[in-house]
Design a protein that fits this description.
CATH architecture of the largest domain: Alpha-beta prism
Function: Cell wall formation. Adds enolpyruvyl to UDP-N-acetylglucosamine.
Largest sheet: 4 strands, mixed
Shape: elongated
EC number: 2.5.1.7
Main location: cytoplasm
CATH superfamily of the largest domain: Enolpyruvate transferase domain
Structural class: alpha/beta
InterPro entries: Enolpyruvate_Tfrase_dom, Enolpyruvate_Tfrase_sf, MurA_subfamily, RNA3'P_cycl/enolpyr_Trfase_a/b, UDP_GlcNAc_COvinyl_MurA
Number of strands: 24
Distance between the termini: 5 Å
Pfam family, one: EPSP_synthase
Number of domains: 2
CATH topology of the largest domain: UDP-n-acetylglucosamine1-carboxyvinyl-transferase, Chain
Length: 417
């Protein structure tokens, strides 16, 4: 397993290009199952999760042609409706093939998903919605079996806000007969990006960006071209890195209207933020101020930014607290941050951070995707050498993070093992 070695203390200066959003690209790749025509995608990030999804889709019969960050996909020869455990176990988003397969082909066999060990993320809402659309669904031997001659439009009210659940059911409804209403729908920019692609493919969707989606099913969908939105979590992660180390960095190929809650907290920390149509500039000249926050569904503060902001809070004067409301096991980075000299205690879903002013490098171990990003941020600000082990988690969601950070002055290198 590769590891990162970081010699902290360098201020960051320069430009960092932001990649396409992982959490937008994964459902968009699955939309290729809905049509026999070409789907041409640009700004697709080079990530382990993206490659895993492409491997899964190719195994089903989707043809994939790559040219830089452009991918052309065609689902005309899909013949295999099985998503095996070997591929699904590493990536929860693989559940997103379920509804497109049933909607277009009338059947699917999909392994129950895996992914990061940050908490329970049940698929009951996907199954409940698919059954409401008229599919027969059963679970046996670790697999979801679903069948339907033709899905029928219906009214779906999810018990909780679920991003992948909304995306899966949205794709199913595009080819269902009649009108489907999805209430309590997730409003994340990644859901909206999928909806915009589906409209380009001929879907009829009302209420995009709201918690009530109305879909009028069509007989078939056609090909389309689409540019994946910038990754708001990667954007926020690099903003946190500069907030922790100080410096002056411009993030390019991104925009500020997809992470307003996080930007407001960065400003509270004392950063000077300016933005244009496709860039965000951060200047940080002083020690960060601590901020309190509570994670919640979009447009609230994202759970995927909790660990990174906690790393910055460790460097503040103020005592702060963080409340995690989405995932019950999302404080696994706390003990690793404490190894670097942080002072954090947890009680239930709340973490209490006593700012220490400085961190000191040490070997640490990444436990999940966003936890690994928080350890990189802490290492960049720490005195001495930090080794971040098990960075295969990091590679699932960040496109060559160490290369981008080196370009703005960080002393960080990947060591192959």
């Amino acid at each position: 397993m590769d590891k990162l070695i970081i010699n902290g203390g360098n201020r960051l200066h320069g430009e960092i290009p932001i990649s396409g959003a992982k959490n937008a690209a994964l459902p968009i790749l699955c939309a290729s199952l809905l049509t026999a025509d070409d789907i041409e995608l640009t700004n697709v990030p080079h990530l382990k999760d993206v490659q895993t999804m492409l491997t899964l889709l190719q195994q089903m019969g989707v043809t994939v042609k790559k040219d830089g960050n452009k991918i052309v996909m065609n689902g005309n020869t899909v013949h295999n409706f099985n998503a095996p455990y070997e591929l699904v176990k590493t990536m929860r988003a693989a559940i997103l093939v379920l509804c497109p397969l049933v909607a277009r082909f009338g059947e699917a066999k999909v392994s129950l998903p895996g992914g990061c060990a940050i908490g329970s993320r049940p698929v009951e809402q996907h199954i409940k919605g698919l059954r409401a659309l008229g599919a027969e669904v059963e679970i046996k031997a670790g697999y979801i079996y679903a069948k339907a001659k033709k899905l029928k439009g219906t009214r779906i009210v999810t018990d909780m806000i679920t991003v992948t659940g909304t995306e899966n059911l949205l794709m199913a409804a595009t080819l269902a007969e009649g009108e489907t209403v999805i209430k309590n729908a997730a409003r994340e920019p990644e859901v909206t990006d999928l909806a915009h692609l589906l409209v380009k493919m001929g879907a009829k969707i009302e209420g995009i960006g709201t918690d009530r989606l109305v879909i009028h099913g069509v007989e078939r969908l056609h090909g389309a071209r689409h540019d994946v939105i910038p990754d708001r979590i990667e954007t926020g992660t690099f903003l946190c890195a500069v907030a922790a180390t100080g410096g002056d960095v411009t993030l390019t190929k991104t925009r500020d209207n997809i992470l307003e809650s996080a930007l407001n907290k960065i400003r509270e920390m004392g950063a000077d933020i300016s933005a244009g149509a496709d860039w965000i500039r951060i200047k940080m000249e002083k020690r960060p101020r601590g901020v309190n926050f509570r994670t919640t569904e979009y447009p609230g503060f994202p759970t995927d930014m909790q660990a990174q902001f906690m790393a910055v809070n460790c460097l503040a004067d103020e005592a702060t607290h963080v409340i995690e409301t989405i995932f019950e096991n999302r404080f696994m980075h706390v003990q690793e941050l404490n190894r670097l000299g942080a002072r954090i205690k947890t009680e239930g879903n709340t973490a209490f951070i006593s700012g220490v002013g400085k961190l000191v490098g040490a070997p640490v171990m990444a436990t999940d995707l966003r936890a690994s990003a928080s350890l990189v941020i802490a290492g960049l600000a720490a005195q001495g050498e930090t080794q971040v082990n098990r960075i295969y988690h990091l590679d699932r969601g960040y496109d060559r993070m160490e290369v981008k950070l080196t370009a703005v002055g960080a002393d960080i290198k990947r060591v192959k093992q």
